[in-house]
């Protein structure tokens, strides 16, 4: 009865010393619960043999001997748990559990979700959801997405970390800028400024060389300006000076015009069919300063409370403007997030969720590619770990195996494989987009303004010619 008591069985190391028939030697025992050996004989005391801790306290859990470990789980936890739909589970953490089960010789059971649809919220020293099952002893452990927090350290045994991740934000992509503005996007504003200055200053240099080479030149500054502008418009010139200095200056100018126009034309073709957007939000601070509210599914995660209690003004502002969406009974997987996705696509909210899950969830909806983006900055990034019932004596056995899997790179490989497969499953086939009138509206606008400007100049020329004839 003593060895079966929870105090003994929850101890990592157990040694029972009994009196033997030989009064000079004691018998040593331990307990191996997974081998159905409550009282397992070690040997007779000999200080030469049992001179180390390892020999005196043998490993009680060298093998789990086919033991069944009961997991408090939630299948809606991609890419860590994925319900494949054919009665089997996939996901990175499922791969970890399978590898550890093969090594330690155990099997496991899972549940699709908690009865209250929560993962774990602490109220009056009692946990709800998945963590409540572990606290009450109904389940042995959980392998879902749980970060290490002070509260969880107090109530549960926690494994070594196996992954590092935080909570990310998805934001609707702002409306694209008008297509006619594509005409200015081939160059940055610095390049446009340089081109404008060259157009204004180069005619002065060319005109100065013209006057220096030909003292009696009748060429006006306006003529030189029109002459230099013809290089940008790829127009032929009727006359070129034969003065060496002018030829060198004009040759350099034409070469410069050629490079600028070719570069502009090449980049213009690339940007005509690609919509341009206003500068997106990049940081949590910028998100907090925007009018967007924040939406999150209410499943007992610590984030809403942490945001409200944060001393960081940006995080506190997000917490004060957070709308929690209740879980929908009998709906599982990404379907739980329909309301949140509607809020996202309406442009009124950003939505927050664990970063990897958010990426996979957003991809699964029938929204136009590029209609949303993810904030580069994450919040509450931290180590992920498995959680066990407090005083689980065999929890440390998982640590050794998990370290090996992490150090061998298998955990990252499983993660990357799942993310890549999911990306391919939802990726739409790329289609060659034809250039339409919508893409070329900037070109036609420039042509229209050019025609109007030409008619205006032509009108003034007619008036000038008429006045000259009247004066004669």
UniProtKB/TrEMBL annotation:
Residues 188-451 form the Ionotropic glutamate receptor C-terminal domain. The chain crosses the membrane at residues 191-211, 253-277, 444-462. It is found in: Cell membrane. The keyword Membrane applies. It is a multi-pass membrane protein. Gene3D superfamilies: 1.10.287.70, Periplasmic binding protein-like II. Residues 77-174 form the Ionotropic glutamate receptor L-glutamate and glycine-binding domain. GO terms for cellular component: plasma membrane. It comes from the Eukaryota. The keyword Membrane applies. Keywords: Cell membrane, Glycoprotein, Ion channel, Ion transport, Ligand-gated ion channel, Membrane, Receptor, Transmembrane, Transmembrane helix, Transport. InterPro entries: Glu/Gly-bd, Insect_Ionotropic_Sensory_Rcpt, Iontro_rcpt_C. Belongs to the glutamate-gated ion channel (TC 1.A.10.1) family. This is Glutamate receptor ionotropic, kainate 5-like. It comes from Hirondellea gigas. The lineage of its organism: Eukaryota, Metazoa, Ecdysozoa, Arthropoda, Crustacea.
């Amino acid at each position: 009865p003593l060895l079966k008591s929870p105090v003994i069985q929850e101890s990592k190391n157990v040694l029972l010393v009994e009196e033997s028939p030989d009064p000079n030697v004691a018998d040593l025992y331990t307990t191996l619960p997974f081998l159905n050996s409550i009282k397992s004989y070690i040997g007779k005391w000999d200080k030469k043999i049992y001179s180390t801790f390892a020999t005196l306290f043998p490993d009680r859990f060298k093998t789990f001997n086919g033991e069944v470990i009961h997991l408090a789980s939630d299948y809606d936890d991609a890419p860590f748990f994925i319900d494949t739909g054919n009665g089997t589970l996939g996901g990175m953490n499922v791969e970890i559990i399978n590898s550890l089960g093969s090594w330690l010789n155990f099997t496991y059971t899972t549940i699709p979700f908690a009865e209250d649809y929560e993962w774990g919220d602490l109220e009056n020293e009692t946990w709800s959801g998945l963590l409540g099952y572990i606290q009450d002893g109904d389940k042995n452990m959980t392998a879902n997405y749980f970060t290490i927090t002070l509260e969880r350290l107090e109530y549960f045994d926690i494994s070594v970390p196996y992954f590092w991740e935080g909570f990310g934000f998805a934001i609707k992509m702002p409306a694209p800028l008008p297509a006619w503005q594509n005409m200015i996007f081939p160059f940055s504003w610095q390049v446009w400024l340089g081109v404008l200055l060259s157009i204004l200053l180069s005619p002065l240099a060319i005109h100065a060389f013209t006057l220096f080479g030909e003292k009696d030149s009748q060429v006006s500054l306006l003529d030189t300006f029109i002459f230099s502008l013809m290089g940008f418009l790829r127009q032929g010139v009727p006359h070129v000076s034969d003065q060496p200095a002018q030829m060198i200056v004009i040759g350099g100018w034409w070469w410069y015009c050629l490079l600028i126009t070719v570069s502009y034309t090449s980049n213009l073709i690339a940007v005509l069919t690609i919509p341009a957007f206003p500068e997106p939000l990049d940081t949590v601070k910028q998100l907090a300063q925007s009018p967007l509210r924040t939406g999150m599914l209410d499943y007992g995660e610590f984030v809403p409370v942490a945001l409200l209690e944060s001393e960081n003004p940006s995080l506190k502002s997000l917490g004060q403007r957070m709308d929690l969406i209740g879980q929908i009974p009998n709906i599982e997987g990404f379907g739980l997030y329909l309301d949140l996705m509607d809020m996202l696509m309406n442009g009124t909210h950003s939505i927050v969720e664990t970063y990897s899950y958010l990426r996979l969830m957003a991809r699964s909806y029938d929204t136009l590619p590029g209609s949303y983006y993810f904030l580069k900055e994450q919040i509450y990034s931290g180590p992920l770990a498995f959680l066990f019932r407090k005083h689980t004596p065999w929890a440390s056995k998982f640590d050794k195996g998990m370290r090996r899997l992490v150090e061998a790179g298998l955990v990252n490989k499983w993660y990357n494989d799942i993310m890549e497969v999911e990306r391919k499953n939802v990726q739409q086939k790329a289609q060659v987009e034809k250039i339409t009138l919508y893409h070329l509206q900037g070109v036609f606008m420039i042509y229209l303004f050019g025609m109007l400007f030409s008619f205006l100049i032509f009108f003034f020329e007619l008036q000038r010619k008429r006045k000259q004839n009247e004066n004669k």
